[in-house]
Amino acid sequence: MTSARRVVTLPPGVHGLEAVSFAEAVRRRGASLLEVRTDLHEPEAVDVTALARVLPLLVSERGRPLPASWVEAAAHVDRDVTVSVDAPPSKLVASHHAERPLSTPEALRIWDRSLPATAFVKHVEPLGSPARLPELLETQARLIERFGAGRVTVLGMGAVALPARAVLAQRNALDYVAAGGGWSAAPGQRLLDDVVREARRPGGAGSSRRGILGTAIAHSRSPRIHRQPFDRIDIPEDAPVEELVDALLPHYAGFAITSPFKLRLARHVRSPLEAINTLVRRKDRWESFNTDVEGARAVLKRLGAREAFVLGDGGSTAALRSVAEDSACRLRILKRAEIREPLSGAGVWTWPDRVAPPEGLRFDQARVAIIAYGAPGRRIAKEISRRGGTPVMLGAAWFIAQARRQRELWETAT
């Protein structure tokens, strides 16, 4: 099985020399093709000849016609198969973007047509329910039967489509990925760096997948330290995460669970634990664990206090509560409404970076442990300092301790 060619789309507002610099940057990071779309750029805004010298171009007709100069400079030309396939046969990417989820028979009827033997075939539709992944895989398999391996790309789009796209990418010809930052060309795209990491490390594409499930997890280091393939599945807080993990059971060996899903998924898999941060596949079911207890134990040991307040009462607090007695530390769990006086002594801040602390929160020279890391941890540290406390950066200690145990558990997946 060959890896799909990685396609990065030129973002809107990136023109001229800036566009060339963008192409050079994503080429160095492992992109195979640069897509330029007519709905994102005016013909005169980009120098396609200069771009083509950096990366092969895939020019896509979206609404407005493709300029002749774009077609001439491009290695590949994307046209909607239901409108026109007027492109040099050797360059054609015949595509269709469905407005709703389609059954496999409906999708196949769209592609019941003759195409040049060298043309790529790209079928895109909204994922809809995560439970539709088997239907998309069936559509992909049937299109490969019809047009041949190495020519077909099937993509799902939507807020929870990322893991479906990761599974589909194992047989796709093209993999449309996001460069990073605040913009992506379609909902559900994986990050370029994550896809390249999977391709380059042992145990990559084709192995049982793992991933981290959470909200606002672009900073997560999990994909960097765990065995590949490992997906960063960043989904909205109100996403149907329960339905998602059920749909992915045949395709993933395990998941790391982070905020805000630790309590919800504990209930969903009927865990005896209050909160979980790890799922491991056991044939036709998920087994749950909370390796956060290892992180909690490491943090309380480093904090070295006999008594500590805890800000927040989610999954991380459940782990702290479970090890407090063994760590000889008495915890005082503070609800937001209970915080009235400045806090002193030692404490642990468990609120995620995206959760605003109470306006009246103040510290009286308290030492406050932070269990986030990276940019979110640094932002929390500034907030603690601004409110009169001393931040203690223990996010890395928590992360490493719990991740070691997660790795051991995933190796036992069946």
Descriptors:
elongated; Rossmann fold; 414 residues; TIM Barrel; eight-stranded parallel beta sheet; single chain; 2 domains; alpha/beta; 14 helices
- Taking pLDDT < 50 over at least 5 consecutive residues as the criterion, the unreliable ranges are none
How big a fraction of the residues is strand? 15-25%
Q: Looking at this structure, what is the CATH superfamily of the largest domain?
A: Aldolase class I
Count of helical regions: 14
Which strand order do you get reading across the main beta sheet? 7-6-5-4-3-2-1-8
* Sheet with most strands: 8 strands, parallel
Q: What would you call the structural class?
A: alpha/beta
Radius of gyration: 24 Å
CATH architecture tag of the largest domain:
Alpha-Beta Barrel
Number of domains: 2
Helical content, roughly? 25-40%
- Averaged pLDDT: 93
The total of beta strands comes to: 18
CATH topology-level name of the largest domain: TIM Barrel
Oligomer: single chain
Q: Quick one: overall form?
A: elongated
Terminal CA distance reads: 24 Å
